[in-house]
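Work Package 3 (structural annotation) set out to generate three-dimensional models for the target panel prioritized at the project kickoff. During this period the team completed the workflow that converts sequence records into discrete structure tokens, so that structures can be stored uniformly alongside our sequence database. As a representative example, we reproduce one entry of 390 residues exactly as it appears in the project archive.
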Amino acid sequence: MTELELKYGCNPNQKPARIYMEGRELPLTVLNGKPGYINFMDALNSWQLVKALKKSTGLPAAASFKHVSPAGAALGKPLTDVERKIYFAPEGDLSPIACAYIRARGADRLCSFGDWAALSDTCDADTARYLAAEVSDGVIAPAYTDEALEILKSKRKGGYNVVQIDPDYEPDPAERRNIYGIWFEQGYNDLSIDEKMLENIVTANKELSQDAKNDMLLSLITLKYTQSNSVCYVKDGMTIGVGAGQQSRIHCTRLAGNKADIWWLRQHPKVLGLQFVDGIRRPDRDNAIDIYISDEHDDVLAEGVWQNTFKVRPEVLTEAEKKEWIAKMSSVTVGSDAFFPFGDNVERARKSGVQYIAQPGGSIRDDQVIATADKYGMVMAFTGIRLFHH
């Protein structure tokens, strides 16, 4: 197949639409559904991310994409009991690739609503069953077990999008795009992100464990496929906050840090103790938790609202309690797709438990940024490589 006709482009008025290759067969097959233009943009970007993560760390990897940026990405590490609860994961043993996707989606469940999933390894029944229970547009993987494919074909009244990609496919060395009738061409970004990038540690503290290195690699590879400007917070092999497409670096750091704080607050005993009404849908539960954690908690506790969500009226999670809980977060990594121009980014990152930083370096104020990191005993590596993605 060299061409696949699509229903329309980014918007319904943009017709005709297709994906195609000149002189080569498309390296993918649609096994179910009818993916659209944005679906394929998410699919191909997310596949590159998980393929790179698997190559760099040797671990199964998964991503949850929305609007051509990751809502979350993660490595296939076992779920803790708390993670099972906050991600609504099933009991019992789960495959590494299922754990990877559950953690990737759990990084930001609100932003993952209606996501595109990407898997570095074969999609198995564990992963398919979890996907079937979530609101998702489609999935891309190198292969599917027969049982997994049967489960996925039953989702969305048989219309769920399932794409299989050739894991050995390599793109041409040059990539092109058309904007306003004008062609752009550049070399494909085949930069390999590996541990060699982390050798230039510029802070006084130079202690970097293998887990911390993996988290740095995860942050950098995620940023490589995130709309710039972008900043990514990572903990224990999963992103916990991605800030994408901001014009200001500090706004990226704040946005991603706020998401990281929300992820951590979901583990607060008061949140874990919320008692939901029977039969509540997962998205409604996610929305209620988000409002309960946020400054808008009065809305969900208002008369006539909380009764539709909770069995008993929940106790307010005060600002003081939130601040105290967030202060307990530690061993977090933050990556940035371009240099931190000021120390304020480090100051904001510290508030969300950041201990490790990976960024290109190259600011005229690098000395200020390093001094700020040293003030808190952080470990910071200058990669020397910018990771803009547009």
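The chain has three domains: 3-165, 174-265+326-382, 269-316.
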